[in-house]
Design goal:
The protein is α/β, with parallel strands linked by helices. 50% of the residues lie in helices and 12% in strands. β5, α8 and β6 form a beta-alpha-beta unit.
Length: 547
């Protein structure tokens, strides 16, 4: 009897292990089908999802139970870890599913020619979500265009603070959340390079050397995708314009409403210029005009001066920063002469220190100007460097020099859009006169000499006139797409209106920093007169003594 019990228990253990292995294999096949083969075979996304997720969860739970029944304490600890992973995965998946179901989302696939000029070219695939409208009347679908280039509309829906805005926009029509060509793993192809590149930690940052390292890395990445027969010359904004028009046709609509942010506004403007009769309305957050891909150093200098002026009178700072710009100038001058060695504590890669110079701080400050939340920390950062504490700058330098990923979609799109000769000349002149130089464009256009995408020329970048009703939304603390970008572009829009948000920067702040933003968008979409064209949102700096 005892022997039979032992045999039975052994059989149960072996059976459980085979079930566990089978579940893992089924899960792997399902995930591959969903994210790799699904675009090729156009299978139903939800069928694949409900095979993939339960099978993976079952495999994790069986593994956890098998480990827990083992005697070694290490196996029991492993069981706890596996179980926690399963719970975390369940939570994440349920969170995403909840958002999709709440949005009435249908997962769809757009199949287009890789080269719109050659219909017989290989097919590429782009996923999009169709969020069903909550209104009964028909209205043109609202197509959301993410920024970047290389950003994902679907990730914005799941992970940003804009989810309530997406839900509210459904009251005005179907909302289409589209992942543009080359942007995400579930698209085919996905143009993120498979490895990363690093800049040495033992020398100060040098932009010329950084460009050389980046160029060498991108060349290797290009060869990787060329071996996969990807036509990299087709990853340009005009090609995405044709994808967008294919999407319009697939939706069965004569017109679409464009809702875009950052680079997405660049794509929207290109579409409006190419197909004006097919656009019902447009809402553009953080405008990047057709000749505004490369940033102006003078705009960065103005953002610095504006921040310095605000810091001088900010109540939270209590007069501790009377001239932030002068303090930053002194810090940069010191680093030009004497780069600093900064110890790195608890570094994930085991590095002990980093040598930082003026360019490290220039880059860090330029990125902090992006929006209000990051800009609020500038006086504290500069005050500490002025006092000799460069620990924050050291951590920034270490993180931004290592494990840098690249998207060929991003590089090709920006290099193709480029800049007019007049703008390039202006950038060169302003860079020599600005405290931060040209770090805002670090690598562009220098890296473009190895990009596959052809320059689109000044005809593409030329301004245009249109009577499409368009709402421009800008923030006074936006260090990427400043108010002046919208003002320059708005000149050709006979039915254009401008909403300026004082105290808002790039990203979510252009959508959710005030409930009046959504109210204004809804008024515009309904064709009503706008109640406001100017909104002020709270902004204050972090106290200098705060951690």
């Amino acid at each position: 009897m005892k022997i039979n019990v032992i045999k039975s228990d052994l059989f149960a253990r072996l059976s459980a292990k085979w079930w566990c292995a089978g579940m893992f294999i089924l899960s792997a096949i399902s995930w591959l089908a969903m994210f790799v083969f699904q675009p090729l075979f156009d299978t139903d996304f939800w069928i694949e999802w409900w095979i993939a997720f339960p099978s993976l969860l079952a495999a994790l739970l069986i593994s956890s139970r098998l480990l827990w029944r083992s005697k070694p304490w290490l196996a029991k600890a492993g069981a706890v870890v596996v179980a926690l992973v399963g719970l975390a995965l369940t939570g994440l998946v349920m969170f995403i599913i909840y958002k999709l179901v709440a949005a009435g989302a249908a997962v769809e696939l757009l199949t287009t020619a890789e080269d719109s000029q050659r219909p017989d070219s290989p097919k590429i695939h782009q996923l999009y979500l169709e969020l069903g409208s909550t209104r009964a009347e028909d209205a043109p679908p609202i197509v959301y265009l993410a920024g970047g280039p290389g950003g994902a509309g679907t990730a914005t829906l799941y992970l940003s603070g804009r989810y309530p805005v997406f839900m509210a926009m459904r009251e005005l029509g179907d909302v289409i959340v589209w992942d543009q060509r080359g942007t995400m793993p579930w698209n085919d192809p996905f143009l993120f390079c498979p490895s990363t590149w690093n800049f040495p930690l033992d020398i100060p940052l040098d932009l010329n050397r950084m460009v050389d390292l980046r160029r060498e890395f991108v060349e290797t990445c290009r060869q990787h995708f060329q071996q996969k027969n990807v036509d990299l010359t087709t990853y340009t904004t005009p090609q995405s314009v044709e994808d967008l028009d294919d999407l319009r046709r697939q939706l069965g609509s004569e017109q679409i409403t464009l809702w875009a942010t950052s680079y997405g506004t660049h794509l929207a403007l290109a579409y409006m210029k190419r197909y004006p009769q097919r656009v019902h309305r447009a809402i553009l957050h953080g405008i990047e005009g057709l000749d505004q891909t490369l940033k102006l150093p003078s705009q960065v200098q103005s953002a610095l001066q504006h921040t310095s002026d605000l810091a001088r009178i900010d109540e939270a700072l209590e007069g501790a920063m009377p001239d932030m710009l002068a303090d930053l100038t002194a810090v940069i001058a010191e680093l030009e002469q004497n780069p600093k060695r900064v110890a790195l504590e608890d570094d994930d890669d085991g590095a002990k220190e980093v040598l930082i110079g003026a360019q490290d701080v220039r880059l860090m400050i330029a990125l902090q100007l992006r929006n209000g939340s990051s800009r609020s920390r500038l006086p504290r950062m500069i005050a500490r460097m002025r006092a000799g504490d460069f620990s924050r700058a050291g951590r920034f330098a270490a993180s931004h020099r290592r494990n840098n990923r690249e998207s060929l979609m991003h590089i090709n799109m920006d290099c193709a859009s480029g800049a007019t000769a007049a703008r390039l000349e202006r950038i060169a002149t302003e860079a020599s006169q600005s405290l931060l130089g040209n770090v805002i464009n670090a690598g562009f256009p220098e890296i473009c000499d190895i990009a596959d995408s052809p320059d689109l020329g000044d005809t593409f970048r030329a301004p245009f006139a249109t009577d499409i009703p368009t709402l421009f939304i800008s923030g006074t603390l936006d260090g990427r797409t400043p108010v002046s970008n919208a003002e320059e572009t708005l000149a050709g829009f006979t039915q254009g209106q401008h909403l300026i948000i004082e105290g808002a920067g790039h990203g979510d702040e252009l959508f959710v920093s005030s409930p009046q933003i959504l109210e204004t968008m809804q008024q515009f979409m309904r064709g009503e007169a706008l109640a406001v064209h100017y909104i002020k949102v709270p902004f204050e700096f972090s106290p200098i003594e705060a951690e």
